[in-house]
Amino acid sequence: MTEEKTTRRRPRSDGQRNRERLIEAAKAAFQDGETEMRFDEISRRAGVGIGTLYRHFPTRDALIEAVYRTEVEGLSAAAQQLAATCVPAEALRSWMRLFVDYFATKQLIAPALNSLVGGPGQLYATSGEHLKTAIRELVGRAVENGDIRADLDPFDLLRALVGVANVAADPGWEASAKRLVDILIAGSRPDA
Amino acid sequence: MTEEKTTRRRPRSDGQRNRERLIEAAKAAFQDGETEMRFDEISRRAGVGIGTLYRHFPTRDALIEAVYRTEVEGLSAAAQQLAATCVPAEALRSWMRLFVDYFATKQLIAPALNSLVGGPGQLYATSGEHLKTAIRELVGRAVENGDIRADLDPFDLLRALVGVANVAADPGWEASAKRLVDILIAGSRPDA
DNA sequence: AACTTATACGGAGGATGTCTCCGTTTAGCA
DNA sequence: TGCTAAACGGAGACATCCTCCGTATAAGTT
Fold it and tell me: Are residues A161 and A178 both part of a single domain?
């Protein structure tokens, strides 16, 4: 048996940089409403070869997930900040509205769904953990405070949010989505 | 200017039959969880040539819409029947639950979304009218009866339903979706 | 600074799926 | 039974996906 290599070379800087560029280009493609995001087009935009794209992201889903994950991280951070600065009920409501803004304005979820439906939570499961943690925290505090029924499954709310944010195709969706947030909150009150 | 032809030949029976077969085959493909529904495969299953498929449904969306429309018609009929046999609030709630069953169990919406996001309601707008009418009716009656706030936009609820039914990928979605229906109803009450 | 080598790059080209075009077949009608 | 509009079928042009491998370069070594 050969000795296990303990000293690993530091990752190459160009690799790291290209990876970031690719994610950036993919995100831009989404936001331009490119339902069809051709891979060669994305690699061209990022200024790298096609082979490079495929090495970093072997499948379409891997690329989508990477974009998705960077977005989720920001949202996760926002949850912590809101929890620290607002009363529980308001923190929850604000975060849910932020969720709508953050995801739906960027039309990010919608294309991502394509792969989400593929398997049971392939993509969603990985970065979804962060979101679950965030909303569990927010709901937990609201329950303790008596703003929300204790029997509410936090993940139910998250599911509704994902759903609501998806239907962002026609004009007026944004106002509608925010009204729905309020309806959901109202329906989650202890006396409802 | 030539005389306008007033006598049109009756549509050919084989054309009609093949059209139905194709819709049937496509629906089956959806239900088998075929996220990738290859066109040649569908035409093969229907026992017709590829050319025939493309003549009947020039684009992928056209085929999806045809499948979608047949489903929507059943749901629309159910709304009328529920309105006739239940008290308003119960009719609305039952229909919303039926919506979840009807669409989400069949995983039908999810693939259909692919085209929905393409343009502003391309597909959704056409058959969506039926759904809009159905829920407008149900909500209208519930409002008159004092079960639901008057300022609720019926389409908001529909949007939420579509969204909720979409996230049907992981186990437990069904129970979650139905809990959400109750939360939505509770949040729509006049005193909420 | 020069050398070594693991790591990453790029894009040609094969595999796979989409969609069109047109010669052949068939159902409706007289 | 003959005529013809309507429908059929599938070969093949076209587009996109993804793999493979020779070349280039950054990290570590002397």
Answer: yes
